């Protein structure tokens, strides 16, 4: 336990001896002292004005509709599910509209809605669609959504508190919020004390409610766990769920989701107990988590879709609007955050949102500072991480991600040393993300589909080596949780940026070591993606390395042998059963290339190896009885039998087509003669020609000072 | 021959008795009298300023590069091909830069380039990549591109004319342009006299060169054909290639391409021989053709991709920049044209571009007036046409197209009564367009692929009925050219817009009659797409009606029987060999539905028929040895054996998902109980329920006054 944590816990112990901060309302995102300023800001600063206008419009629509609080019945995406979601949004929107406009009709709506809930809530049983081994809620099929509901609703209640009679407040508190507190801490005891994002939503709901209702006992439980011993609860979650770099082990999609209760509760803590200095906790962990969330996006705004992820999700998501506004207003006013706020096109109508909107209108915005970085995973930062390499402006950026992180619990994928490659604001080599149609009730209630386990999590669904057609750790989470990859090198020199990592436990007796780099050659606009995947075993194995690509295959060094009259699955299990084998080409040369046209630009991947490879062309869709899979494509480099195997690829980004003007530029790769000169445990040596010049690329796995070298050989 | 044409020909005969308009340079898009105004405009009006800035930038880049005039060797997309394309663009850009900046270095570049061509041109043989039965060029693999080259280059020459010494002019004219004129009129005699877009480019090249070089003989040939009898040449092409509504029979993609030489030559004619009143010719045909080109786009700017079409093509294409600028400046200053000009983001640096940019900067722009209309095909307007129905604003427009046009020569598809449906700025039921990777040399030199014939042109690649798994007219162009569909009805009433057409010759003894409508019900944001396809024969046939869709299948009224372990092609020929059969469902009910999620919105297609149908789920890709096909998907309604068959579908556009906020709205269709009450040669009667109300929809094929009726039945 470090010094700071000790201090905080001492402070905590002290603070609960005395009474909490004198109650005033509102006191979370909007605070009483700032109401006038925010109100003026909604008339002055465009982004705040538009944000409030949206909220008021929605509040006005809510007022035209009869209040509906149906008996909970449906799963995700169903009628009662969506109605209760709508209700918490309406409560919050009307509460904000009340504070800004001063019109009591909005407060009355919130009051009536809450009284309606209060008249029913205690009679509701556990939700009928609750699933086995998954904590059911009362309002929703899972308790998680009940917590989200409460996090929103308690903010709304806080904002209309002064407009409700004490009698009605008493009804609402005693018939609704207190029973909810009881449900969330007692019925959901296990979740409440879990170190997990469900736990975070739960403690945030309980803690924020505790503050607003002035129930310090609940606040203390929320911060330190049911037993108040600090082994669970909010602070334990900050300690354990995030790495020292602010990475959340489940991956960016869940990081974004987990972030909201963290920052909202932090804001409440900061307002009610500023002496706790929660934003400074664990070396300013929360602001790191917010910044890391932003760094885990590509320039199109989408989160890197590693692990279970809905791929359309961007930093426009409300969680990051909250996160960003608070980071800027309450923690550190970095001008590059304003760039993202502008792209989010909204701020929270709040003290923080006022600060952001004001700064933007004063012209303080600067381009967001995407950086290359190694983001450590694990509570102590020693469980691998993510290597992110970027090159180019935010308008046309190359980005390479290597995933060498821990398993990330149940939402993790078996995809160590997977790489993602982006360029031109689009995916080039991509991750499938989750197999799920979120909120689409016809697709298994919007839940994760069976294909999420059988396909999306499997190793072959990723751009990494598969050994013997099996997934890493034989797709067993419990085994995978025990180990994480090792970072070998992350750094740069004049010519390139490099990430290198190894995984030695995923397959018995097989070492996987991958070194990927973005390499700048003279007179090239775009850098080369140079990838050396060294696989080493004492036994013979089959090694497959797929590259899942977007776009269309337009050229290859060989004539593909296509299965024209019949398609069969590539294999039987570990995801192979979901792949159609479209073409198979046993090459007789040691090198070759494949060219893809994607978003009007060319990507040529040259490959070589110790011996000729088999190249397979694949598409997704076999054994998919509910037609749930997306028919994406890949080319797979395959070595049917070898002890040691090195897959070398160089992907050149080149040229473009202009379909409007019907012109084409640099359709052919300038790279040629790719050769693997040698490869072993100590290093690898590769040569190639580019635009008439000859280059040698060396990797020295054991030399941190000269880890890679690129030498021009004359010609 | 109508009165106007007689007058024009009389005028023509007269005009060539006297000398042509006194020579001055430049005198096509830029005219001497307007140079000062355009020059000032490039400093004043933003769109002209940016357009000139682009051109000057490209001209400046050209000046930094050595002039390269390689011996023609490569096909489309190859090095020499692209270099000669670049050269004509550079010539035109530098010529404009000379006129606006007055800097003689740009003129010298053009002079040097042209002298270089002049030193070589006569030695060049016919292009080595010329193809059999296709007129080869000297600079490019096909003469068509030589004509395009000349159309650009002669404009450039016209602009630098006064800056070149008479000696050099003499060299350029005698060693380059005169030989080109000779080549295009003598070696390419057949093309020059063809009523076809290749002919148009040829006569425009010859005619414009004739004007600039003051060679009236060539102008006269260009206008009236080699024999000067008016049976071929420019005026004959205007008469025959366009319908009275300005539709070009090959379809929008080629209409756009054909348009440029038409309007450029028209502009030259108008400047040199204003007495010909060319813009008034054939009841102002040219402006109709320009407007029709724009009406043949969807709100995303893309042309309807019927027949052979590259699908990315939009009205931003340079041909329509020329067309629009001239239409606005020289023909009629419609303010809605300015909207498109703004979306084109450029104007031609010219007299016309000045007028457009000035008007925009004066705030005269109005939203483009997309209209519902029947566009007649055929020189006399009696060869079918296109029915276009639109609903909603340009921001979120529903658009339905029924293709009931003539075959459209060699680029036509066998797709009569095909429908396309657009919504939400995207394709819902789409046309595959051409199978071609234009300018991608690795894909068969960028030419049309074999799959263009074997797949893209075939009936099954379209959303229309296929009889006995064969294409219309057994895919014989010569047969298909003999007939065209008949318009039965095009119109609207209070509730709906309707198009109905029949095709009676495509299949022996089978009548095809389709009636499609966009129908507005009370309280719906979006209209229903109501489609009744009546097929009638005395013999039994198999009838297939595919709907090629974008998006992902997310629900159906039945559980699809999916081929999970093996895929086989759907058939052997007429495109069926390119389709994988993914699922096959012999229904035991007469109606059902399929729901698609596309671009965050739901589309549910309800279907019914006289008897239960088989529904097949299909994807493209079988028998595709070069992996050239795009793996699009469809559901196909199929009746294995029937004499008379009515396919009724109602497609409801509903709800949305918001993946950023993870909400869903109206995921389920409100329509139900779709029934076919009766259907025969006289009409059809369909009933359905929508949002609790019951409706009957009647079609009376023989009653033009009450062609359709929609009656609400209470409930």
TrEMBL record, chains A, B:
Keyword Lyase: yes
InterPro entries in UniProt: Alginate_lyase_dom, Chondroitin_lyas, Hepar_II_III_C
SUPFAM superfamilies: Chondroitin AC/alginate lyase
Signal peptide: 1-22
Residue ranges annotated for the Heparinase II/III-like C-terminal domain, each copy included: 379-549
Gene Ontology MF term list: lyase activity
Identification of the protein by name: Heparinase II/III family protein
Organism: Pseudopedobacter saltans (strain ATCC 51119 / DSM 12145 / JCM 21818 / CCUG 39354 / LMG 10337 / NBRC 100064 / NCIMB 13643) (Pedobacter saltans)
Lineage: Bacteria, Pseudomonadati, Bacteroidota, Sphingobacteriia, Sphingobacteriales
